[in-house]
Amino acid sequence: MGTFKIEGGIRLKGEVKPQGAKNEALQILCAVLLTPEKVTINNIPDIIDVNKLITLLGNLGVKIQRNGEGSITFQSDEVNVGYLETEAFKKEGGSLRGSIMIVGPLLARFGKGYIPKPGGDKIGRRRLDTHFEGFINLGAKFRYNREDHFYGVEAPSGLTGTDMLLDEASVTGTANIVMAAVLAKGQTTVYNAACEPYLQQLCKMLNSMGANIKGVGSNLLTIEGVESLGGCSHRILPDMVEIGSWIGLAAMTRSEITIKDVSWDNLGVIPNTFRKLGITIERKGDDIYIPTHENYQIKTDIDGSILTIADAPWPGFTPDLLSIVLVVATQANGDVLIHQKMFESRLFFVDKLIDMGAKIMLCDPHRAVVMGHDFKSQLKATTMSSPDIRAGISLLIAALSAKGTSTIQNIEQIDRGYERIDERLRALGANIVRV
Question: Is 167 known to be catalytic?
């Protein structure tokens, strides 16, 4: 396992360009299975989770042509569906949660799709019911091997459109159902659909391939099935979670940073949520400029009560940034209640911040109150381990602001979601070494 050694307390300065969006890439890459024609994807992030999925596609028989940095052309004209029933696939597919999204395209085009119980972050229970209930509604037969934790859906006669109301606005569940429905016979309506920018990107890409999806950007999608899809070229959005991470890092380390080409129109409430913590965020064209902060004051509600920041389905605040908000609040002037509604284990890294001197009260698995130091007391360096992607980057931000040299172990968790993070930090002046 790799380790970062970080000397904290150094102010950074410079420009950084966000990587392509991890969560969009995982959806978009699975969609290449829907057509035998060539699909070119640009701005693909070079991170562990995405590279694992590209390897999986290659093992399925997808032809992969690398065109240059971040650009790959895929052609799924000789897919080996038999690979799904091999022991190698059970091991490979189980190591990556994003692999669940190959099931919808495979089911739609080849009449069957299988997947082992997916891996990913250990942040609490993450149901797959929405995915498979959607496939069943479209006419697929479901089977589950409890002994091997192996899921399967089959529709040898094809899928049939239907009306469905999702029990949760699952982003990956919606993506999987949409990819299955585009080749189904007749019309499908999906109500309570996720409408994140990444899901909108998927729908726009599918429409450019010949699909007929209406209501993109809303929570009601109407999909008219088509007989086949063609090739296309698609560019992935910048990663809004990484953009939020850079905002938090700049404030916490009192650094002056410009984040380039952020696609402001797709950031939703993210900039204003950080502004509620007192962070100055300036829009310069399509860039974000964060000036040096000597302090930042948490705003209260209109009636003077403590600010609450909670996650919610889009256009609400993404849960992937709550860990960042929490760590940034440890040096704010004021108090804030962080309410993590979706995952019951995502706040369990706060004990590491408390060890560093942060004032945090964990109320229950979903809520924590943070009482900011206002930079009057610097966090202390320590040795810690990264439990998941977002907690990992939050601990890295804490270490960069702390007094002394910190060690973060299990950094593969950070590498799963952040491209060459140590190199990019060093370019801003950080003292970080990968061991």
Answer: no
